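Data availability (excerpt). All sequences and predicted token strings are deposited with the supplementary files. A representative entry, CD59 glycoprotein, is shown inline so that the format can be inspected without opening the archive.
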Amino acid sequence: MDKMKCILFTVFITIVVFCQSGDALRCYTCEQSPVVCRNNVTCTPEDDVCLQIRFVHLRTYSCWKSSRCTTKEVAEEFSADSFRFLCCHRDLCNKSPSFLVASTAAFSISAVTVIWMVYL
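Structure token line:
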């Protein structure tokens, strides 16, 4: 019975971390900013992710379509060849790459817990 409780708890935590409400997404928006962006907007329904593009000394933040979260699409849109980018699905998540690390860690911990509980 304890395994089942742990599995249900892990599934619950995973759902809370990765799901969002039905409200419109809010993202930071700044073009070629040398500092952390503080402006934010409510995205249109077509834009379903927040984007952060990191150039050498500048960052651009905006709303974006998840289907366009590819290196090719971002490079074409911003006429860039040397950059890193982040697409994320939660409100104001494009402020820094820490959300990506936190989400990956939370998912990994949840997956390991489920595997551990199933095989023990």
